[in-house]
Amino acid sequence: MKKIEAVIKPFKLEDVKEALVEAGISGMTVSEVKGYGRQQGHTELYRGAEYVVDFLPKIKIDLVVNDDQVDEIIKLITDNAKTGKIGDGKIFVTNVEKAVRIRTGETDSEAV
Fold it and tell me: Contact, 93 vs 2, CB < 8 A?
């Protein structure tokens, strides 16, 4: 099993979620996060004063999938989150050694 963490622009969440649901993904965790990458934030003007916005709002999606689904899910997220502009986000994939469904005690693939 693999854990996929995707950090995307907030307005792309619905598109990504719909694509994942259509692909049969039954659960995911979504968090509102802040961060920056190469764009290093930006400056804004408020009441005549310029200030730097260091951390930009992003959405982080966490999901655990079977190994054979990873490439398909990465493609779905990429296709639906991409705007072609800086700050589109990142996807990270890590190994999951164990998963347990608390309610039933099911483990690993059955728990996902």
Answer: yes
C-alpha–C-alpha distance, residues 59 and 100, integer Å: 25
Cα 7 to its chain centre, rounded Å, is: 4
User: Which tokens hold the place of 53?
Assistant: 């916005």
> Please, how many CA atoms are within 13 Å of residue 1, restricted to the half-sphere of its CB?
15
Q: Concatenated DSSP letters for 8-30? A: E-GGGHHHHHHHHHHTT----EE
Q: Using an 8 Å Cβ cutoff, are 8 and 37 in contact?
A: no
Residue in the structure block whose two tokens are 């079977």: 66
**What digits encode the pLDDT tens for the residues 54-89?**
778 899 999 999 999 999 999 999 999 999 988 899
- pTM for the whole structure: 0.84
Q: How many residues does the chain have?
A: 112
| Of residues 89, 94, 91, the one with CA closest to residue 36 | 89
